[in-house]
Amino acid sequence: MAADLLESVPDVRPAEEVIAEGAVLLPGFARTIEVELLEALRAIIEQSPFRHMTTPGGHQMSVAMTNCGGFGWVTDRSGYRYDPNDPQSGKPWPPMPGAFRELARAAADRGGFGGFAPDACLVNRYQPGARMSLHQDRDENDFSAPIVSVSLGLPATFLFGGLKRSDKPRRFRLEHGDVVVWGGPTRLAFHGVAPLAEGEHSLLGRQRINLTFRKAR
Length: 217
Ligand code: MD6
Ligand code: FE
Fold this sequence. Notes:
Helices cover 16% and strands 30% of the residues. It has 217 residues and is α+β, with helices and mostly antiparallel strands. The strands form three sheets. It has a seven-stranded antiparallel beta sheet with strand order 1-2-11-8-13-6-3, covered by helices on one side. Residues 124, 132, 137, 147, 149, 158, 180, 182, 191, 193, 210, 212 line the site of N-[(3-hydroxypyridin-2-yl)carbonyl]glycine (MD6).
């Protein structure tokens, strides 16, 4: 039977990979709830659509963003901040769906960070060519909480450097359903995403979606 044959194909990807001190990649961790995640995502972007924000330096980002949860990460000419409201509507960001919250907590547990209770989820949309230059995530109040990052759709190359901008980044492939949990000694490591390659994903089409869960306050 075809199904038996498929089940007998060995999964050569490891169950988890430590990519740095305090940072672990969980391949396919979100795959079992992909349908719930995508349904919840559709409701979020209906209420708070993706938009290309402007950096303090005046550049429009190639990645389109929205948020859910009590606080949303935003950037404009006045700087970066966490805002309880969507500046586009003046209303609170959509609430964080239960499936998002539970996934983030379960992944953080696996990464060795028990009791993770995110209050912010940044949703990034990459279309082919979009990229994220090297940066640190440092707009949160409490660096003792980890960050949980969920990749959906087209694969991307994640760049993971050191604590100095000049440290040469290592490259990791992130595929649909992969989760990265990241905290502790490398919480402030520089990181980014290489320009997204052309492609077509069976569920998401010509895009990659990344969810990053944080404890902002
Ligand atoms: C992305 N991720 O994967 C961008 N930041 O699209 C991030 O900037 C990021 O994945 C902190 C921790 C994990 C991340
Ligand atoms: Fe980041």
